[in-house]
Structure formats: structure tokens, C-alpha cells
Design a protein that fits this description.
Pfam families: Macro (PF01661). This protein has 169 residues and is α/β, with parallel strands linked by helices. Helix content is 39%, strand content 20%.
């Protein structure tokens, strides 16, 4: 059974095999967590992303972690939905991001993974709903990953993730 932990901090400093970035479809880098990960991993990350992209919303693709410190070996690029009010399948697309990221992690042999709060920044997905989807999807997805860290970028995100984890625990 997978162990799920909620933490607040810098996802680029997580002690895991793979980190997930909340990518845009081009995989060339962006703002927020994606920009921070691209900056930490170095310029080869954008070149690698461009070589495999584009990536459709709800899907995930992997690249090496480049300049990130071990044990991080892989970056999994997950493209979340843009929030349009909730009536356009956004929840299903977001759940697919977490599910596909775990499937990619399994293909890579990763046993530990760190996720940001996908689509809650500029894509506008409500943080409380996103947290519930993240936790429920990780709990219900068959995976060989043993440890999942849900990394919050601020106290509000941490509270939503912790509440979702506690409610399903």
C-alpha cells in the first residue's frame, strides 16, 4: 500500500526518485512550479521536453532530471486542465494527470514520487477540489510506487491537501 505524505516546501529539494511538474502542453517550461523545476534542472530540461512534446491535458511524459540532485532521476511532466467552471470534464482530466504520472513512474521503476498541486495556479482549479481529487486518485490507482509526497507551495495548499488526506484516511 502506498504511503501518502503532505509536506510544504520546495519540490525541487524532495528526496524522491521522480518529481512531477505541472507542465503546459509544450513541455518547454512555464511559470510557477514548472518554472522553478525548469530553473533547478537547467536548460537541458526544456530541450528534452520540446523533443517529446506536445503533451495533451490529462497525460504525462518523463524526461531525465538533469541538474537536480539525486536521488531525483526523473521529471514527470503532467498537463492539467484549465478551469472553466467545472462543467467541462476538468475533474476527470486532473485525475488523469495523477493516474498517468503514477503509471509513468511505474514504467521508470520509481518507488517514490513528489507531486505539486497540479492546475491550482494559473490554470485556476479550486485548491480544495484539486486536493480531494489528488488524494482520491493516488489512493485508488494501482501502482508500485511506495511513497507519494504531496508538496504544497503555501499554507493554504497544505491545509487543503491535509484535509483531503485526513478525510480519506
Amino acid at each position: 500500500m502506498v504511503i501518502i505524505e503532505v509536506v510544504m516546501g520546495d519540490i525541487t529539494r524532495e528526496d524522491v526518485d521522480a518529481i512531477v511538474t505541472a507542465a503546459n502542453e509544450s513541455l518547454l517550461g512555464g511559470g510557477g512550479v514548472d518554472g522553478a523545476i525548469h530553473q533547478a534542472a537547467g536548460p537541458r530540461l526544456a530541450r528534452a521536453g520540446g523533443a517529446i512534446g506536445p503533451c495533451e491535458p490529462g497525460n504525462a511524459m518523463a524526461t531525465p532530471a538533469f541538474d537536480l540532485n539525486p536521488p531525483v532521476r526523473h521529471i514527470i511532466h503532467a498537463v492539467g486542465p484549465i478551469w472553466e467552471g467545472g462543467g467541462h470534464g476538468e475533474a476527470d482530466v486532473l485525475a488523469s494527470c495523477y493516474r498517468r504520472s503514477l503509471q509513468v513512474a511505474d514504467e521508470l521503476g520509481a518507488r517514490s514520487i513528489a507531486f505539486p498541486a497540479i492546475a491550482t495556479g494559473v490554470y485556476g482549479f479550486p485548491a480544495d477540489q484539486a486536493a480531494r481529487i489528488a488524494v482520491a486518485t493516488v489512493r485508488s490507482t494501482a501502482t508500485n510506487v511506495q511513497r507519494v509526497r504531496l508538496v504544497a507551495f503555501d499554507e493554504d495548499a497544505r491545509e487543503h491537501l491535509q484535509a483531503a488526506l485526513t478525510a480519506t484516511g
